[in-house]
Amino acid sequence: MDWGMQNRLSKLIQPDGKCFFMPIDHGYFQGPTRCLEKPALTIKPLLPFCDALFVTRGVLRSAIAPEINKPIILRVSGGTSMVGKDLADEGLTTSIEEVIRLNVSAVGVSVFVGSDHEKQTLLNLASLVNQCEAYGIPVMAVTAVGKELEKLDARYLALSCRIAAELGARVVKTYWCKEDFDKVVCGCPVPVVIAGGPKCETEKEVFEFVHDGMQKGAIGINLGRNIWQSEHPVAMAKSLWQIVHEKANVKKAQEIFNETRNKG
Q1: Domain contains 72
Q2: 178 lies in some domain
Q3: What is the SS3 assignment for 221?
Q4: How many domains does the chain fold into?
Q5: Which tens digits make up the pLDDT trace of 30-45?
Q6: Which of 83, 121, 157, 190 has the greatest CB tally within 10 Å of its CB?
């Protein structure tokens, strides 16, 4: 691995080998998502707890101050919306020149294994890897499922993660599953980070799946809605940081959440 690639990955994955990415890219297909109407205000109190932001170029330019000392993972796939026919029908939206110009630490692209657009999204990933490897820029593959959440089982996720790694992704973002998540991680030869998915009903649910995923081999998280749509986003972020970087268990995370929430 050359110096540039190592340097960028070292900014994303911390010295303890763990990472806490915060996605605020939801607007690329959802529009003005609740609590992301003004991204700059949403992330300001949360920045101390995340290791990198996952964001589109439009929001990066319009809402993220260049002085913010946080690595950027740039969302570079899109072209669909919630009102369109198929969320899986994505293409690449950003050129390698733009990626370099924005000085980002990594790029992220969704793949939709098992969809009608499987081949196109996998070729999107392969094309992006071909371009980015030449400049030492890591690619994070996002194993997306669109609206078909019933696909979230270990067999499907393991298949998606392995294919993404085989095509050259340096990191894979995937969903946690209750059964056999360790098999998903073990079958993927590159680091796995946990996606948040739909918003959970309680903070404890979030702590439980994140803790379980970390125990079973994930190196970190890429959570958005379960943090910034919480009634207490700072408490959520602080508690999750403790699980990721300090090996806090669910009980300890809940205590930190309650203490931070009560301080207001």
Answers
A1: yes
A2: yes
A3: strand
A4: 1
A5: 999 999 999 999 999 9
A6: 157
Total length of the chain: 264
Question: Is pLDDT at 147 greater than 80 in this prediction?
Answer: no
Asked if 174 and 198 touch (Cβ cutoff 8 Å), the reply is no
Contact 203, 254 (CB under 8 A): yes
Domain hosting 187: range is 3-224
In a domain, 264, yes or no: no
**Residue 51 DSSP label:** S
Of 18, 151, 173, 238, the active-site residue reads: 173
How does strand 192-195 pair with strand 52-55? unpaired
Dihedral sign (CA 211, 215, 220, 224): negative
For the cut 80, the answer to whether the pLDDT of residue 137 exceeds it is yes
149 pLDDT above the threshold of 80: no
- Chain position carrying tokens 């095509």: 167
Residue 14 lies in a domain: yes
Mean pLDDT for the chain overall: 95
Q: φ, ψ for residue 38 (rounded to 5)?
A: -130, 85
Per-residue pLDDT tens over the stretch 164-198: 999 999 999 999 999 999 999 999 999 999 999 77
Separation of alpha carbons 88 and 144, rounded Å: 8
| pTM greater than 0.90 (yes/no) | yes
Q: Whole-angstrom Cα distance, residue 49 to residue 92?
A: 30
